[in-house]
What does this fold into?
Amino acid sequence: MLIGYARVSSTSQSLDIQHEALAATGAEKIFSEKVSGRSTTDREQLALAMSFAREGDTLIVTRLDRLARSVGDLHRIIETLTAKGVAFKCLNQPGVDTDSSMGRLLIGVLGAVAAFEVDIRRERQMEGVRKAQAAGKYRGRPASIDPTKIKELKAGGMGAAAIAKQMGIGRASVYRALAA
It folds into this structure.
């Protein structure tokens, strides 16, 4: 069975192109999500796709960076699939698969290039942030939690769970704000 996996990084992006390509290839089941690829944590659909896959199946993606952005994550995913007897193929990067020694080599090389690109992008971003800070134009993200409001609610007799629910934040955030 061909199992597709599609991912985009933000909710404003569309999965349609990836879905179409995976379906055109014959993917019988497609797992997709809108979440960052920097890490495999919090990627529920990837975990479901990997647990759904059985021996003899093939997991397919449109591009390697849809599966993983770090070499470590990529190798862990491939190792898990290989241990289950599940093959891997990448549609837009022919030859990137687990069916041959050359394919496995290409996975390693392209994974390293993807990780390098992420590092370079992060370095450029941080350089821009430092320049903006030096020019007084960057103040960071505005606070999303009002500690004063939390303390007022607490003084009014509300518990942490009720405050968290009312404000739409996590209980741990309430405790951090109260401790500050």
Observations:
- The two ends are 54 Å apart (CA to CA).
- The chain has a mean pLDDT of 87.
